[in-house]
Amino acid sequence: xxxxxxxxxxxxxxxxxxxxxxxxxxxxxxxxxxxxxxxxxxxxxxxxxxxxxxxxxxxxxxxxxxxxxxxxxxxxxxxxxxxxxxxxxxxxxxxxxxxxxxxxxxxxxxxxxxxxxxxxxxxxxxxxxxxxxxxxxxxxxxxxxxxxxxxxxxxxxxxxxxxxxxxxxxxxxxxxxxxxxxxxxxxxxxxxxxxxxxxxxxxxxxxxxxxxxxxxxxxxxxxxxxxxxxxxxxxxxxxxxxxxxxxxxxxxxxxxxxxxxxxxxxxxxxxxxxxxxxxxxxxxxxxxxxxxxxxxxxxxxxxxxxxxxxxxxxxxxxxxxxxxxxxxxxxxxxxxxxxxxxxxxxxxxxxxxxxxxxxxxxxxxxxxxxxxxxxxxxxxxxxxxxxxxxxxxxxxxxxxxxxxxxxxxxxxxxxxxx
Amino acid sequence: xxxxxxxxxxxxxxxxxxxxxxxxxxxxxxxxxxxxxxxxxxxxxxxxxxxxxxxxxxxxxxxxxxxxxxxxxxxxxxxxxxxxxxxxxxxxxxxxxxxxxxxxxxxxxxxxxxxxxxxxxxxxxxxxxxxxxxxxxxxxxxxxxxxxxxxxxxxxxxxx
Lengths: 418, 160
Ligand code: SF4
Hints:
The complex is a heterodimer. Chain A is an alpha/beta fold. Helix content of chain A is 30%, strand content 18%. Chain A has 13 helices and 18 strands. A seven-stranded mixed sheet of chain B has the order 4-3-2-1-5-6-7, covered by helices on one side. In chain B, strand 5 and strand 6 form a beta hairpin. The longest helix of chain B is centred in the middle third of the chain and has 10 residues, at 89-98. Bound molecules: iron/sulfur cluster. Iron/sulfur cluster is lined by residues 65-66, 103-105, 124, 126, 300-301, 361, 364-365, 382-383 of chain A.
């Protein structure tokens, strides 16, 4: 019986020729990631268990992105604990702090720290983002992170897969975000529970790396263990520009078994918005009434890349954010910030009346830098619109692409890009 | 292992943001986390939960973020076991790794306030209020070893 792409990467990382769905394996980890929320718990567990050193100082990464620049004293203490630990264990070079930090899932691909064929775990659910780079990557908890820091291994249950066969090309103003919201609308927030989402078909090559990163990022919103794209020229070009390591290309066997095959015609996908309070509440504009908004957030690991800022700036340039709407733009990394500055995008944003923030997760998880009051509504390019996600439990988050977010900021209500 | 307790019931897709909102994640203190457990879904939870109560829910329990603070908050609040129709995968592994018992079974017929008795070895859930029994699959041996050892880090013996 053939293996899926995910199963092949897993087999190679546990020294087996063949693995099957349902099998539990102990796999070697190429990279372990943690952030300023999950790492302090992992460090406590690591110390409690009597572990002393990390398994490889080049394979553990700390990214302090959630409550930074430190929101309060408690957040500051958490970051200090991480900094001290990284220094003590000899990997301060992999501890990303204010001034060089970015939102973790934008930062690692940008720095070439993940390449095709890798097995990456992170104590952050959106670690699945790196499937766009044809790696197996998945989110785990702090205890998993502690164990992997100590041993370089993780236990995994080999997943079965759903294949998404992509055809066609996206229309103008339609992006990866619309594709994944469309898929969420089809299969729901538990539609791929415990499974891999394997993207395939001629439509893949028409998607930019930025679109792929956005789609893989939200695989977890379908309950998936991972989302993964095949390697093509765009992948290799992206990776070679960022690392000297050699990618390992894994392909699904022709007779790989899938639980389900879903066809997606990219040219039929329309601008989509996910209504509160689940990412599966996807609606297109023919089903959206006039909904006034109070805030717009353009940023996050989902849509805070340079490509996203270009899309938003093209819409906001020369226009004004509607009176009564607060539009917050957050470049996901320092590099993106600098490039956006050099391209004049930051000027476009500020002239339009947006606030531009230093890289941080900030409002995405209701942390700081744009928390919502009771009854307020926000259009965000982030990935979750759960109850209370961005602030008060009675506030509302509508998920959309940077194009829809920018158009909505100008219109003062949820609006399509035109 | 056997436990007996009273049911606190919730619906489908209970996410980690309502189990423990991000605004409290600037600490990893278990008691402080437990003090805010379920706050955005059910403000009465922390005042009415009794040690040994059983949390029962529908599908996709624990979806959302990877925060281990979620199962930790539930465990520290005194909940002895979570029974749901299905769990989000990171919550599932976090619960095992920190030693919060969870079971996957049909929960439709269980109501708030019912008394349950759970036999983990036999894989049986008895609803003493309704006089019914549901079966569930015990964990595979590898995961049972982690639970028996008292969590993942104990089972790997510390590391180097
Ligand atoms: S941007 Fe949002 S979803 Fe992404 S890592 Fe930060 S908090 Fe998580």
